[in-house]
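As a point of orientation, let us examine one representative protein, giving the amino acid sequence and backbone structure tokens.
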Amino acid sequence: MLTNNLPRHDPAQNGAKTPLAGQRILVAEDEGLIALELERMLEDFGCDVVGPLASVDAVLQAVSDNANGSDFDGALLDVNLRGRRIFEILPALQELGLRFILTSGYDDASLFPAPFRAVPRIAKPFDERALRRLCERIFARPAMS
């Protein structure tokens, strides 16, 4: 079993409010170790993680059950969940206004169906800094003035 012995950064320890604090992020990932690491990273960013969910049907059900997706601030969705591609439900998620980032072992957008090539994505293995920047850009609430 792999463990991460690095100290965890907890923004709450120093009273800092991060741009992602309290954001409810749905995670769809069917590989256990990747799901755990992704969950840890998101929690370190200040997010509340929902999931991880391991199937396309579970993602669609969770979004449908939660006020048509409005209970989530966003989602990180693995492209391939147990042999099924997430692309089949993306139009429904877009229609509900759910903001999402695709995760994939492949960083080549040409492998995605044309309508989804411009969707925000990040390649595995995740670079924590790049993931944080992307999550802040896609999921963070605008600053109050």
Q: What stands out?
A: The chain has one domain: 19-139. The beta strands are 24-28, 48-53, 74-78, 80-81, 84-85, 100-104, 121-123. The helical segments are 32-44, 56-65, 90-95, 128-139. The longest strand covers residues 48-53.
